[in-house]
Amino acid sequence: MMLTQLPNEILDNIIKHTLPEGFESVGLTCKRIYARCTTFINRHRELRSRFHTFGYYLRPYGLNLTSASDMIMLIANEPVVAHYIRTATFETDSRFLLRQRPKSVPSIADGGAVVELFANSTYLKQANLDWKEYYTTFEEDVRERRYSQHGGAFLLTLLPNIEKLIIPRSWKPNDATDKLLDAIVDKAKQSTSSLASVTRFEGAVSLCTEERFDLRWASPFLALPHMRSFRGPSCFALEGIPRSLAFRDSHRIAETLQAAHLVSCCIDEVGIADFLRHTPSLKTLRYWHGTKNDSPVQDWDICKFVKAVEREAGSHLVQLSVAIRELHGSIVPGQASIRGFQRLKTLEIPLELVMCNIAATASHTINPSEPLVDLIPTSVAQLSLISKGTDHHEEALDALFRHFRSTHDSQLSALQEIHISCPNSADDIYKNQCDRVVKEASDKSVVVHLKPFPSTYGFLWDGEP
Questions:
Q1: Helix, strand or coil, per DSSP, at residue 89
Q2: Which of 41, 44, 42, 33 is nearest to 10 (CA)?
Q3: CA–CA separation, 221 vs 242, rounded Å?
Q4: Read out DSSP for 283-325?
Q5: SS3 sequence of 191-216
Q6: Which of 347, 339, 242, 329 is nearest to 285 (CA)?
Q7: Does 7 or 49 have the greater pLDDT score?
Q8: CA angle at residue 170 from 164 to 176, to 5 degrees?
């Protein structure tokens, strides 16, 4: 029997099950089916408007969705809702709980759609987790009006179509949710299951010095089969805290990750090497260093950090930014080279890195242009230099550009655009040096932009929304 020959009751049921993925295509089949689809159009539009880009909310009236438990209960009773979510912004999970009347979920004895969702979960079964124990912890969290890690992780098993995921700010994985995430990743690699379509992942921790997000917590998400970009605020990965390392003792490889934006992070050379060793397709790396209050190390060895990036990713990185957002300690003396980057097109560094090279070679007789050769690969087309314009940073500019006219054609012929921080508060001698760079570069048709703030904004970076 042809589809158009089916009774209206059966046809309506078929149409309802095409929401949302196949609804519009089915509606274009023929006039009769289109006519049957019209009764579902308003509902389709409403669900798409409410859930396509979803974030938790609290309103003075009507339905409130403020936590993972709210979403789990909604999906249990109306499963189609989960299929509409494309961008899942779960950052504020449970933030508004204390401003609401107490909630509860059914007990195991009471049963119902929510309990059945856990009891029938293939993810809990694959993770070898007792669903009753898992549910009991979830139920207790809801009853005590606190954020539920069990609830937040279980919700991720119900979302087949999301493409962008921002996890809760309170995300703190435990043994049970680690096992569940492993099951999610394994199933996502084998079929079009939950999280299989995610291309962008973001942590939700603030940039303040009191908060941190162990880079290890991101590694399961980065191993999803279509992951392309990662934004990790306040990430933490230090040699002295092995459990913070992203992939230590893990078989996971973030094979498809192409862009990583690590903002206000505290990562040493061992931490970044561990991360890069497991991201073989990475093309863009932006790292802004920020000391965390509970970090056992307050100083930063930027030279070893850059060497680790060069060693692990020098063959494939196209864009690299290394910057200092907030440093409580000091820059550790050393010397770095970026000559090993073979494909780098966009480079952004702080002038502190150049000053390290100058200090390291001060006692030796060197070619005046050597810092330039070491720190700007011949492939670079866009260069950004970050500085507050103090601490003798005019010496760094001088070392980089003293012989720019004579070295440009042979060593920097690809260079087209330079951004240099030149704040109003900068030393006069630094400002004068900036003006000299503008003149030297213009003679070689290289455009120089003097930026009024020591910021990292200026170029387009892959993976930024």
A1: strand
A2: 33
A3: 19
A4: -EEEEEEE--TT-S--SB-HHHHHHHHHHHHTTT-SEEEEEEE
A5: CCCCCCCCCEEECCCCCCCCCCEEHH
A6: 347
A7: 49
A8: 85
383: three-class secondary structure by DSSP: strand
Angle between helices 351-360 and 302-313 (to 10 degrees): 100
442 in helix, strand or coil?
Answer: helix
Nearest Cα neighbor of 97 from 75, 64, 71, 138 is: 64
Residue 363 pLDDT exceeds 60: no
CATH 3.30.750 fits 353-456, yes or no: yes
Between 27-41, 65-79, 170-184, the lowest mean confidence (pLDDT) is in 27-41
CA distances from 360 to 355, 357, 365, 425 (A): 8, 5, 11, 28
Mean per-residue pLDDT for 315-329? 92
CB neighbours of 231 closer than 8 A, spacing ≥ 6?
200, 201, 202, 203, 261, 263, 463
In terms of Cα–Cα distance, which of 306, 289, 368 is closest to 341?
Answer: 306
Of how many residues is the chain composed?
465
Q: Where are the beta strands (DSSP E) in 112-174?
A: 164-166
Q: Is the dihedral angle over the CA atoms 306, 311, 314, 317 positive or is it negative?
A: negative
Encoding tokens for residue 103? 């909630």
Tokens of 41: 């159009």
- Other Cβ atoms within 10 Å of 143 Cβ, number: 13
CB atoms within 10 A of CB 232: 26
Q: What is the pLDDT of residues 35-59, one digit of tens each?
A: 665 666 677 778 888 888 999 987 7
pLDDT score at 5: 60
Residue 359, SS3 per DSSP = helix
pTM of the model as a whole: 0.88
Domain ranges in the chain are 3-49, 52-198, 215-332, 353-456
